[in-house]
Structure formats: structure tokens, C-alpha cells
Design brief:
It comes from Zea mays (Maize). The protein is an alpha/beta fold and about 375 residues long. The protein is built from twelve helices and 14 strands.
């Protein structure tokens, strides 16, 4: 091998599993002779081949790392996102641009990704008649805070007028910029789940919207996308599959153990758990008890899903379960939480909370009997 080569960077990339992870070595320079005796896990690849793998991704194919694309390919490709210079953005894979926007998300995070999809060949969607919805550009989750609404407006003004907007769920850090979209492009079409729209309300989005449930196909020029129903984080949570590159835009959460968790919840119910606290304490017994409150919301969604599939045991009372989801759960959780801390003052508070829980249970039974 001859020629001048220089190591620019070595990147340990995130593991997407279940296969072995891929790390990227970025080398710049001229290579006059191919080196064929590489380890089995490594290969030389031309820029053209790398771009083809990114643009025509298939399940099971080789994957090109993010930094290889940004460093090697972006220098020859103009981005489809003409955002304000004040907004950093990243296009990966081709056709999908991420714009991190300051938002009211939870610490330690400070931004929520605004996703922009545009045609990569300038097509305007003229061949999209067989799709559920079509446009020249798509925005996903415009949820930035008011301090960067001007930058969001600049971005929207740079996009074609045939604009689709998808909201993955109703949390504020994903919808706070909807008013800007509405003001800058009154003809934009909002796509979201009905449960999400019910929570957004007309005060945030006052023009027409289209409800999606999952499976709908969307066309953005030469880009094909498919809506994915992914309840769990919220009951109306949606994802979006970018078919061209086999890339999933997940909103907030993409949880790998959802089915295993649901199976463990069903097993705890079949073993006699009747209340929300019973199910949480058995299913999340290995989890810090301070996290049982957010876990309880997950359990409620799974129980609703199991009920919709008619998988709940006949002796399980959904009415009693729902009654146990309020004060009853909080009091029993407080007892369990303070007991795990085990100081005398905490145990005294635990006893008081336990007494209140018993009183609430007796009162509920008395009301039912009368």
C-alpha cells in the first residue's frame, strides 16, 4: 500500500443490537493499493458504495456509521435542510435531517429533535396518488420553546408550502412550536393520533388535522414513510418508518423489552395481583421504589392493552383496578418507599400512611355495600 493516509478520528458508536456493534475509523488521504488482508470485521468501502448502503438500506445489510457519513459524504452532498444558520443540524441518513431545538424537556436534556424530511431529488410528490398523505416536506415534533420560535419560523419559511406535520405524542416539548407552524403556513396538514389531538386541544392547533392510527403510508417526493403505532410512552404515541433507509423515527421512546414487560404484568395478574400497587410491586420488584410512580403509568397502559386483546383473566376486575390507581396506590407506595429507607421518623410516617390506606380501603368497601 502506498500513498499518504492520516487518521482523523476513531468513533465508538452506540450499540443498536442484537448484532455486534460497529465502530468507525475515519482515514483521509489517497490510497493507491487496496489492502485485502483486513480482519473479518473490517472492510474498505468507496464513497459511492457507502452512500448506496445508506440510501437503499435493507434489514440485515451492512450499516454505515454516523460519523463516516457526516465526514465522508456530506462534503459532496448538499443538505436538504435550509435551516437558519443559528440552528445546528445533522443529516443522517440521507433524506432525514435532525435539528436539536431548545425545549421544555426533562433534565439532564435540554433539546428535542425536530425532524425534517424533504425529497432528495427535488420531486414534488406528483407520483404519490396512492398514499394516505403526500407533500413536499414533512416536519416531525416541532416542540421548541418560545425563545427559538423565530429560528423555527425561518426554517418553516425555507420549506415548500405543501407541508405535512407529524406529532408523535402530546408532551409539551413536542408540540410547543405548533403555533409557529400554523402562523407561517396555514395550509400545513397535521397528522397525529386522535388521543394526542384530544390532549393538544384547539388552543394549540386551530386548523384541520388528520387522524392516523398506524400503517398509513406517506409520500414526500421520492421519500416513502409509514406511520407506526407505538403506545407505551403515551397511549397515542406514534413512530415513523423511513422506508428508503429503514430508519425509525421513534418520538421519545423505543423500548426493546415491551413484550417481555407485558408478559410479566399478565403473569402477576394471573398469580393474583388485583390492584395497581400489587402489579407494580411484583413486576418492578428489582427497580428502585422511587421509580414505581412512573412505572405505574406504564402498567396502566399495558393493562388497557391486555384488556383490548381480551387477555385479562375473568376474575380480574378492571373497575377495581382503576379505583386502585389514585390515592390508594400513592398511599401504599409511600408506605413501601419510606419503609425501604428505614429510619424511625420515616417508619412513623409509614405507619400513618398505612393507616390512611386501610381507612380508604374500608371506606370504599362500605360505599360499595351501601
Amino acid at each position: 500500500m502506498s500513498g499518504e493516509l492520516r487518521l482523523l478520528k476513531y468513533v465508538e458508536e452506540a450499540e443498536f443490537g442484537p448484532d455486534a456493534g460497529i465502530n468507525t475509523v475515519y482515514i483521509v488521504g489517497s490510497l493507491e493499493l487496496r489492502l485485502d488482508d483486513l480482519p473479518e470485521s473490517c472492510k474498505w468501502m468507496s464513497k459511492e458504495c457507502a452512500l448506496r448502503l445508506l440510501s437503499e438500506a435493507k434489514p440485515g445489510n451492512d450499516r454505515i456509521g454516523q460519523y463516516a457519513y457526516i465526514g465522508l459524504l456530506n462534503s459532496e452532498l448538499s443538505s436538504n435542510c435550509t435551516a437558519s444558520p443559528a440552528l445546528p443540524f445533522q443529516e443522517y441518513p440521507p433524506g432525514i435531517t435532525l435539528v436539536p431545538m431548545k425545549s421544555r424537556t426533562l433534565a439532564p436534556f435540554r433539546t428535542t429533535n425536530l425532524v425534517v424530511v424533504r425529497s432528495t431529488n427535488g420531486a414534488g410528490g406528483s407520483t404519490c396518488s396512492d398514499f394516505f398523505a403526500s407533500g413536499e416536506a414533512l416536519l416531525i415534533d416541532p416542540g421548541c420553546i418560545s425563545q427559538v420560535h423565530a429560528e423555527l419560523a425561518d426554517l418553516i419559511d425555507s420549506l415548500p408550502k405543501r407541508l405535512l406535520v407529524l406529532v408523535t405524542h402530546h408532551h409539551q416539548d413536542h408540540i410547543e412550536g405548533l403555533s409557529v407552524v400554523q402562523r407561517c403556513n396555514p395550509d400545513a396538514v397535521l397528522l397525529t393520533h386522535q388521543s394526542t389531538m384530544d390532549r393538544i386541544g384547539k388552543g394549540t392547533w386551530q386548523i384541520d388535522y388528520t387522524s392516523v392510527t398506524g400503517g398509513e403510508k406517506i409520500c414526500i417526493g421520492d421519500q416513502e414513510l409509514q406511520v407506526v403505532f407505538a403506545p407505551g410512552h403515551t397511549d397515542g404515541h406514534m413512530g415513523l418508518l423511513h422506508v428508503n433507509t429503514n430508519t425509525l423515527v421513534v418520538g421519545d421512546h423505543c423500548v426493546g423489552n415491551r413484550r417481555a414487560r407485558e408478559a410479566s404484568i399478565l403473569q402477576s395478574i394471573e398469580n393474583g395481583a388485583q390492584t395497581l400497587f400489587d402489579i407494580v410491586s411484583k413486576t418492578y420488584s428489582d427497580v428502585d421504589r422511587k421509580l414505581w410512580i412512573p412505572a405505574s403509568f406504564n402498567v396502566r397502559l399495558h393493562v388497557d392493552h391486555l384488556n383490548s386483546l381480551h387477555k385479562l383473566p375473568k376474575d380480574f376486575s378492571l373497575e377495581n383496578f382503576k379505583e386502585s390507581c389514585g390515592v390508594h396506590f400513592m398511599l401504599r407506595w409511600a408506605v413501601a418507599y419510606v419503609h425501604s429507607r428505614s429510619s424511625p421518623a420515616i417508619l412513623a410516617a409509614s405507619a400513618l400512611a398505612g393507616g390512611l390506606a386501610i381507612a380508604c380501603a374500608l371506606r370504599r368497601n362500605y360505599c360499595k355495600q351501601s
